[in-house]
Input
Amino acid sequence: MSPHEVTLAHIEQAAAALAGVAQRTPVDHATHLSEVLGVPVTMKLENLQRTGSFKLRGATYRLSRLTEAERARGVVAASAGNHAQGVAFAAQQLGIEATICMPLGAPVPKLLATKGYGATVVTDGATVEDCLALAREHADRTGAAMIHPFDHADVIAGQGTIGLEIMQDVPDVETVVVPVGGGGLIAGIGVAVKEIAARAGRQVRVVGVQAAASAAYPPSLAAGAPVTIQRGTTIADGIAVARPGEHTFPLVRDLVDEIVTVEEDDMARAVLTVLERTKLVVEPAGAAGVAAILGGLVETTGPTTVLLSGGNIDPLLMQRIIALGLVASGRYMTMRIPLPDRPGQLARVSEILARVGANVIEVLHTRHDLGLTVGDVVLQVSVETRGPNHQAEVVDALVADGFHPEVADAS
Output
């Protein structure tokens, strides 16, 4: 029997309750990731879940367990978007009034989708933590049931149904890689895969991945208790949590084998890789596990499953991420090249770039840059390249011809 409040039996009950609401999402072979790791890699496509993320599972199970009196008073939740949509959709299906507190900077598609599912949306506060405080105030004032995004046994059990499906669909899996925010998802998956594997007399490693700018688990695990961090800015809003949950922390501590962190460029590159290689749209938080694999942070000796936890991404952010991903993967480079102000210099640079096969995307030729003398100009040129080695070839060719290119920082 598990010493924790969430057990495999609890998760199996959640799976039965989710039938007809949450979809059983597919598992797909990932050829490129398999080549990177040297073992078979599959992707659990929770980005194809209804509402676009795994959050529907925990929200639905939590709401299904409310009493009739609790349902009559409604529910309230706080979220940057995915939990908001999950709660709103589940509430709509169960005929429960829902109020969702979302940060002022919440992605527009997530905001509109939440409203579209019939919830009353309150946009206030700069962070999810601010919104959680507002949601608690609303619950205290109205009697509405507070639906926490991760720190509740029923929510954890609902998310753990993903672990059941992974073990059924990939019975020989040896490593499961999961994005981590507050820990509800990985805690539930950890309970499911560890207990099922133990029954079969074997082990499965569970690896968590956090955004480096918002990684509360490493210091919390080191301290032996949840600690609050100062969150940095991250494109992975879905896992931007400043403090582990009181319920999730002991589960993560006891069941997760390793937590690694990935940088913003890593996640941008992962989003781009998934888009190009699999034709799937995934948000930065959902691609954190792929980022860890591409970055060489996941050690494994056998079949591995990585969870794509969500696909809700603002098209404008997607545009920025694609650009950042191209830079991070060495396929886009911007250079600042000082030139003497005399005819023919731009033509010389263009000839060199053509010779080495760099495709020019954008050019800015100016005499008005700070620090220029009267006889100087600056050429800022952005080019498509084939990777880091090709970028080095481009720079070397310019230097060999007497130019002094300065490559813009990828950030």
